[in-house]
Design a protein that fits this description.
It contains 8 helices and 6 strands, in the order αββαββαααββααα. 52% of the residues lie in helices and 16% in strands. The longest helix is centred in the last third of the chain and has 27 residues, at 137-163. The protein has 3 domains: 2-45 and 115-135, no CATH class; 52-112, no CATH class; 142-186, no CATH class. The chain has helices at residues 2-11, 35-44, 64-71, 76-87, 99-112, 137-163, 167-171, 175-186, and strands at residues 14-20, 27-33, 52-54, 57-59, 119-123, 130-134. With 187 residues, it is an alpha+beta fold.
Length: 187
């Protein structure tokens, strides 16, 4: 999973977040090692390019573009059909898709790409409720990027206000030096 590798390289392997128990609402800290996602992706090896065959019809795995187009549909069945049709290989014209067809194709997609969805099993220490949540690495990484950008803007503002330096001057400092100057400016 390329995003997990990018996340590890940019922010380190430790994913730390919060969630609430689905039963009692207790806030829980969740920690996960993103290297596990990268290791799982490396162990998958080749095979994701092979066509998926269901009832004599061949399909490729969905791309993010396919998923985005399907997400535009307001009806879940119509979204599934749109996704299946966009992945149908050698398709001529529109096909009739039964609910069973859509279910089988969805199951084959999930089996062919087990890293497409990462589920975490969680247990509440207060009420002992156990449930699963999806780890959305895209949203997680984006929130971290936004937080890092806000932090950097604060640092630029504080140092420019304290020392009259330009943004370029401040950005040319190493993280360590910038932190030291921030401590001095705030003392």
């Amino acid at each position: 999973m390329a995003l997990a590798q990018l996340r590890c390289a940019s922010f380190g392997p430790r994913l730390l977040g919060w969630t609430a128990c689905s039963r009692c609402g207790e806030k829980l800290e969740v920690e996960f090692d993103a290297r596990l996602l990268s290791d799982d992706a490396a162990n998958q090896g080749p095979g994701l390019e092979e066509p998926i065959v269901v009832n004599g019809r061949s399909f490729r795995l969905p791309t993010t573009r396919d998923l985005a187009n399907a997400a535009r549909e307001t009806d879940a069945r119509r979204a599934a059909i749109r996704l299946v049709e966009s992945c149908h290989l050698n398709a001529e014209g529109s096909a009739a898709w039964s609910d069973e067809d859509l279910e089988q194709i969805g199951q084959k997609f999930a089996l062919a790409d087990p890293l497409a969805e990462t589920r975490l099993t969680l247990r509440c220490p207060v009420c002992e409720n156990e449930w699963e949540e999806n780890l959305d690495i895209v949203s997680f990484l984006w929130r971290e990027i936004e937080a890092r950008a806000r932090k950097l803007l604060f640092e630029i503002h504080a140092l420019a206000s304290a020392y009259g330096w330009t943004e370029a001057d401040i950005l040319s400092l190493s993280d360590r030096r910038r932190t030291l100057y921030l401590e001095l400016a705030q003392s």
